[in-house]
Amino acid sequence: MTPPEDLETILARLHRAAADEQHLGALDSLRIAGLLGLDALTIDLVNSAGTLELVWCDPVDGPGPELDTLQYTLGDGPTLEAAQHGYTVTEHDLAATDQARWPLFLPAAMQSPARAVIAAPLRVDGDTVGALTGYRATPGAMTASQSRDFHRVRQALLPLVLRSAPSSAGSDSGLRRYREEVQQAAEFLAATLAIPPDHALARLRAYSFRHDRSLTELARDALTRRVRLD
Question: pLDDT digits over 171-222, tens only?
């Protein structure tokens, strides 16, 4: 069995990948999260529509996609706050977090494994291009060393992020577009109802929330006309 890599080895891999002008899609799951005392890491990038698109998770089979989709569906949460305001967000105990901060995300998060979170913006030349978010299943603050390493990982990932724009995800970036069907459904609904795409997406989100349905499943039903949203 191959021994797990330590953080310095993984950082060196990231730096080599950046020097070789690779992108996120060229990297397998690196199992970075556990080395930071986290259970999941996600990267969201701002797409051409100005919304956040989930493009990378570590581990790939962890709780990251579920927690990210909760925020995307509900419209609040740590990833959105970090990306929108450009600062690092930390909550050591989601169960004790002021409900007013994320009134929709927090109750939903209590039904998930997440109990602590850190989210930091990915910034280039003063502009926020996305966010790196870490989740942990147990409450408690990160150690000073873990927090420092989290930001080291963020900086090491940034050159790869720059070559991984969501607009190119369907071509040669190799990125997985976790919400591709949702985007397709929003475009379909916008064309059908002659409304702006952001209004169509808001309609999908509202229906998903009101009927307690997965946004992805709803998008599939909308695309196959099993559900009407007009």
Answer: 445 566 677 777 777 878 888 888 887 788 788 878 887 888 877 787 788 8
CA dihedral for 15, 18, 24, 29, sign (positive or negative): negative
End-to-end CA distance of the chain: 55
Compute the distance between CA of residue 82 and CA of residue 128 in angstroms, rounded to an integer.
9
Whole-model pTM: value is 0.82
Amino acid at 230: D
Considering only the C-alpha atoms of the chain, give the largest distance between any 2 of them, rounded to a whole number of Å.
56
Q: Which residues contact 47 (CB under 8 A, 6 or more apart)?
A: 53, 166, 167, 183
Q: Quote the CA–CA distance of 12 and 16 in Å, as a whole number.
A: 6
How do beta strands 52-58 and 40-46 pair?
Answer: antiparallel
